[in-house]
Amino acid sequence: MSTVEAPARGPVDPRLVRHSRAVRRHLVLVVALGTVVAALVVAQAWLVSDAVADGFAGGGTSGALVGVVAALAVVVLGRALVDWGHRVLSARAATAVTSALRQEVAEALVAGRPGAVLPASGRVVALLGQGIDALEPYVGRYLPALGLAVTVPGVVVVALFTADTLAAVTVAVTLPLVIVFMVLVGWLTQERTQRRWDALARLTHHFADVLAGLTVLTVLGRAASQVTGLRQVGERHRRATTRALRLAFLSSMVLELVATVSVALVAVGVGLRVVEGHLDLGTGLFVLLLAPEAFAPLRQLGTHFHDSAEGVAASREAFAVLDRAAPDRDGPPAGGHRAAPDLDTAVIEVRGVSVRHDQRDGAAPDGAGLRLAPRASVALVGPSGCGKSTLVAVLLGTVRPDAGQVLVGGVDLGDVDLEDWRRQVAWVPQHPALLAGTVADNVRLGTAADDAAVRTALDDAGAADLDADRDVGESGDGLSSGERRRVGVARALLRVRHRGARLLLVDEPTAGLDPDTERHVLDALHGTGATIVTAAHRRAAIDRCDHVVDLGAPT
Fold first, then answer.
1. 187 CB-near residues (< 8 Å, 6+ apart)
2. Is the per-residue pLDDT at 142 higher than 90?
3. Which of 194, 473, 496, 552 is most buried as measured by Cβ atoms within 10 A of its Cβ?
4. Where exactly are the structural domains of the chain?
5. How far apart are the C-alpha atoms of 81 and 73, rounded to whole Å?
6. What's the confidence (pLDDT) of residue 269?
7. Beta strands of 311-357 (E only): which ranges?
């Protein structure tokens, strides 16, 4: 199973670094370019101080001075080129990271692991829209500033030590004060940013709910009353955004003030010693030019600190969705290369299967076991959360058990080619995935059944009143949850009848049906001659099975 890591508390989310190759490359690049910039900063300060000191000493326009000025021009041009390359590469990295993460989250939501508890739709919309967009300034502006803040001050302090120990000590002592203030401000900024994110998610979720029920609200004459609710939720989001921006501006001011005072301390000390003759003009100028450069990256980092808070909050929310919806981070079970045993003759055995979940304490199921002969049926029962849907997912091959094994004809399911295995399996989840098209298109998905077979499957699935030519939107839009479930049952029946599937995995197949329709659907399922594993709560579905396994009972 995937492991849940602690939410990021620092300016860089370690999960984003480990997860994204583009971020890793970008971090290496910004550190390397930061080192180049640091060297150019020291060279520029030395050349300027040397040229000015030589001019005050009466050197005139000697050949040496011309050479210094020419070298200074090369250094300045080099800094400009490095800065330009830094910006271009950062922009490209930001685009690559946001695009890849948005695509991964979307794919995880479409093809997530069975039984996953997904966040509210409004929160997902906010994440895929403005949420992940917050990563662009984070990657494109904050991380480059962080790279400069890591490399430039250290190089500058070392250069200062070679020129003036007192100034170097002053800078080395005051630099940590800026970092301390950044950490203190960062803790408060993170909290305010999370509040703003929650307000945005509530606003998006509220708007989506109102939009989904607009037809009903209009019929009941309640549509106009929703304007007030939307206005109130929008006002809360506006206040949260304003507070976060105010804090960001104040934090920048605090960092600017600390850096300015620190540079002033160095400047006063250098000026007094130059006047008293304890420090030569060239060295004094060199120190005065370098001291602000030591604090400049930290001041720039403070300017982009709000981008850090927004970016970390966005990455944390994205990884929360991936942890819930995506298959195991190490990948779903890859399976082996052995051909799947024939389920017309093979016995299925579940031996001590346990699966641990990220969001729960303990395993569910915990030490589950059963033995299922060909064409037999078993009902998985127990309270919600005991692992019924998860055990179905283990049998399907989409979840790897943490303990125990599944044997099919004496062969471990982990050694079986899963594509070959799934050709013999038909699956009805609680929320079947539907595609844009017609009801008939979704029923015959993966088969070449004719219209008559589709109609028969729908009738046997309790959907006699559902028009096979009815249009279906993306993710089943246009159908109720009960109708989607009926389409899923019809699809499974068609897969058994026309594709030869021999194992039928169904999760609450008769939920929401009246007793007569439920009896009709159960007759159709058990009349297929397939081996059946049913996750069920309803008594009628349980009574039709040959065996009952209580996953909630103590092992």
1. none
2. no
3. 496
4. 14-325, 348-550
5. 12
6. 83
7. 348-354
